[in-house]
Design the sequence.
């Protein structure tokens, strides 16, 4: 079957990472994939060279010219199915008669912008409930989870080189957080938690590496300065290959606010075999079994987050157990074959194949 996968984001984040993985996975299973990206998007050079792609302006959801250009692109490729990702691509897309339209949501968008799609795919039960509460028919709402690929192995020399290059104390505990610098990720709460922790735990200083970029980065850097954390926090920016950072981390922290719909960082942490402290955001409440594969603390509570970090760093056996539990969850419940197979199964069902 021929599919068009349409995404209109400009920067990279969890959704774009999953877009890349799913396009490759579909192609490996014999599904033809053509990606339609926004012009100048960071996703274009990051996408596998094996995936053909085209770029359109995709300016705003209200722009009639963008809608016309996307309609023309769909007609040009004559796909059997178009899958649009997130709000802008979905609201711009109008597919010809006989073409199936699947909208893939990763956040709590207003459902009215998606009711023209034939089917809606969500990656969490909370998102499904959000759509059903707006009276969208249950037969049009489909829950399919995400997957992450097994991480590549990092050499000892690579890790030693990265560790030496980080402008942080050489003997520090390394905390890692990953995501976009946007309000829902609550990195401001994480910085506040770090400022309230003692300078050392178990005789070692604490340091934080933040992987990601976005509009709040300057404000977060200023916050780190105000809290006296400049020498303990490193903003590493977006990393297309975060594997060595995960490998170096003593603990991964996922401090998101309640509106976090899923949290690919949880799955990535588990796949990398690292211990995790997370807030009880919407996605984490659904994914995590607290005490087994992560420690879970209340959202937007810097003191509670700090206590969770201190508890994990102070107990080697606890961290090892959380890492084992997380790796088992990644391998058993979020594997590539099952998720790609679920998408293909839905496509065939919708196409009557």
Sequence:
């Amino acid at each position: 079957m021929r599919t068009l996968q349409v995404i209109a984001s400009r920067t990279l984040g969890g959704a774009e990472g999953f877009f890349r993985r799913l396009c490759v996975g579909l192609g490996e299973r014999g599904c033809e994939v053509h990606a339609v990206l926004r012009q100048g998007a960071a996703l274009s050079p990051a996408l596998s060279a094996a995936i053909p792609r085209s770029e359109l302006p995709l300016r705003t959801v209200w722009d009639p010219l963008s809608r016309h250009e996307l309609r023309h692109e769909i007609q040009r490729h004559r796909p059997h199915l178009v899958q649009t990702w997130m709000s802008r691509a979905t609201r711009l897309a109008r597919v010809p008669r006989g073409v199936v339209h699947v909208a893939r949501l990763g956040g709590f968008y207003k459902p009215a912008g998606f009711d023209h799609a034939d089917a809606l795919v969500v990656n969490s039960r909370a998102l499904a409930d959000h759509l059903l509460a707006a009276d969208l028919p249950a037969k049009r709402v489909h829950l399919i989870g995400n997957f992450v690929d097994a991480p590549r192995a990092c050499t000892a020399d690579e890790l030693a080189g990265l560790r030496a290059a980080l402008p942080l104390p050489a003997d520090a505990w390394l905390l890692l957080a990953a995501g976009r610098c946007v309000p829902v990720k609550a990195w401001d709460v994480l910085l506040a938690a770090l400022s309230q922790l003692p300078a050392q735990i178990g005789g070692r200083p604490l340091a934080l590496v933040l992987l990601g970029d976005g509009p709040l980065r300057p404000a977060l850097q200023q916050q780190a300065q105000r809290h006296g954390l400049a020498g303990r926090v490193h903003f590493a920016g977006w990393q297309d290959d975060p594997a060595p950072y995960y490998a170096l981390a003593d603990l991964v922290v996922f401090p998101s606010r309640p509106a976090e719909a899923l949290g690919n960082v949880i799955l990535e942490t588990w796949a990398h075999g690292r211990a995790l402290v997370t807030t009880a955001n919407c996605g984490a409440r659904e994914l995590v079994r607290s005490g087994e594969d992560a420690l879970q603390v209340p959202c937007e509570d810097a003191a509670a987050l700090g206590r969770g970090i201190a508890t994990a760093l102070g107990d080697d056996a606890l961290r090892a157990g959380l890492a084992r539990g997380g790796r088992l969850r990644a391998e058993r419940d979020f594997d590539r074959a099952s998720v790609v197979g679920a998408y293909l199964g839905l496509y065939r069902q919708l196409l009557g194949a």
The longest strand covers residues 204-211. The chain has a mean pLDDT of 96. Residues 156-333 form a domain with the Rossmann fold fold (CATH 3.40.50.2000).
